[in-house]
Amino acid sequence: MYKNLIFLIFLFIFCYFASAQNGIVVEQEFVKKGCNSTCIYREERITSKTISNFPKNCFTLCGYLVINNLTDLSEKQLLALFENAKVLIGGLTIFDTNYTTGSFLAGLEAIDCMYDSGVEWVSNMKMTELGLTNLKNVTCNDFTISDNSKMTKLNMPKFENYQGTKNLVISRLASNFCMSGDEIKGFSTTTTVPATVEITGKLCDFVKSDKTCTKDISDGCTDFYGDLTIGPNFADLEKLKSLETIIGTLFLNGTTFVDLSIFENLHYVIQIDQKKSALKVEGNKMLSSTLFPSLKRIFSTAALESVIFKNNNENLKSDPMTCYTIRNSIMPSSLWVPDFDGNSCGE
Ligand SMILES: *[C@@H]1O[C@H](CO)[C@@H](O)[C@H](O)[C@H]1NC(C)=O
Ligand SMILES: *[C@@H]1O[C@H](CO)[C@@H](O)[C@H](O)[C@H]1NC(C)=O
Ligand SMILES: *[C@@H]1O[C@H](CO)[C@@H](O)[C@H](O)[C@H]1NC(C)=O
Ligand SMILES: *[C@@H]1O[C@H](CO)[C@@H](O)[C@H](O)[C@H]1NC(C)=O
Ligand SMILES: *[C@@H]1O[C@H](CO)[C@@H](O)[C@H](O)[C@H]1NC(C)=O
């Protein structure tokens, strides 16, 4: 009897310290990431009852922020809470709300998630955009924007860098949902390809500027929008050197290229039309190297044939490194690509 009681007391003391310890560990992890302990929000969610504890004046705001159907605050009230926050460390869930925009978080320039927590922006039936107009960097293993049936755009014009390893999902939004070239390029920067990548939507109309071009490559153009086909008589070879991003299909058809060194600045080839390949290289009889000098990422949403090499120099077929180098740059990673005359790497 006494033994049991003593055991229970021990258990109680043990649990008490274990949980306190855990709280301290989490706190220390936040501090290690650069959080001031006065800037950590510790409540389960954000509601009118908990906002008195909200660290309103922090440049770097920390915590696992949850805004959901129990959040009884107006968009204006939320805006006031987040007015000073530029960096969020922790995680962010916006689930099952009636807000029409996420622009109450427009001040954020960076979101840096802890562990496997992420950004989950799901089932907000009235939300038309994220509205994160200052966001530049997202480092989150899970980034899920889905099931917001009225969402027509992200509206993240400054977005430039995503890093993540697990889920990158931007899907099941309004039927006319579109992403800008810069936004999708921002998601292509991840150095590790996330295990799951699901992005559905169209490309928005592109904004004409000195750095953008379409059909003809203008001098100094870095971002080409549309399908770029290069045949044996392509006139603007020198101009290819300035290209950094192709948002469309790159098709090399019967060129006399020996290698691909002309694409000296090409970082990204991005095709979000599911019916089109991102890269096609066909009938280039002298081409014996597929090394793009600066390539960082080929992004494709096509289930099959996202990258095709066909009828090029015989040497290409017998060089497995060629295949693997290209494959490592493709997002999403898939067993079937690239396709070298009907074979993929290792076959
Ligand atoms: C944390 O914030 C408080 C209040 O803003 C400030 O007084 C303190 O110096 C900060 N501590 C650190 C380590 O930055
Ligand atoms: C919020 O959602 C939960 C779970 O989905 C539900 O049980 C609850 O009734 C909802 N509350 C309100 C105020 O809508
Ligand atoms: C959102 O709107 C619906 C329909 O008007 C309502 O039933 C629901 O309770 C609202 N949810 C919140 C969190 O206000
Ligand atoms: C965003 O990332 C860039 C490059 O990694 C870095 O230089 C910059 O400081 C980051 N900005 C913020 C606000 O975290
Ligand atoms: C590729 O070039 C060949 C020879 O010029 C041409 O016949 C063929 O139609 C081109 N392929 C495509 C898909 O445009």
Automatic annotation (TrEMBL):
Please list the residue ranges annotated as the Receptor L-domain domain. 57-152, 220-314
Query: Which PANTHER family is this protein grouped with?
Result: RECEPTOR PROTEIN-TYROSINE KINASE
Supply the name of the protein: Receptor L-domain domain-containing protein
Q: Quick one: which gene encodes this?
A: Cnig_chr_V.g17946
Instruction: Note the Pfam families from the entry.
Output: Recep_L_domain
Keyword list (alphabetical) reads: Signal
**Where is the secretion signal located?**
1-20
Q: Which InterPro entries does the UniProt record give?
A: Rcpt_L-dom (IPR000494), Rcpt_L-dom_sf (IPR036941), SPS2_domain (IPR053079)
Q: Does the UniProt entry include the keyword Membrane?
A: no
Gene3D superfamilies documented for this protein: Receptor L-domain (3.80.20.20)
Q: Does the keyword Calcium apply?
A: no
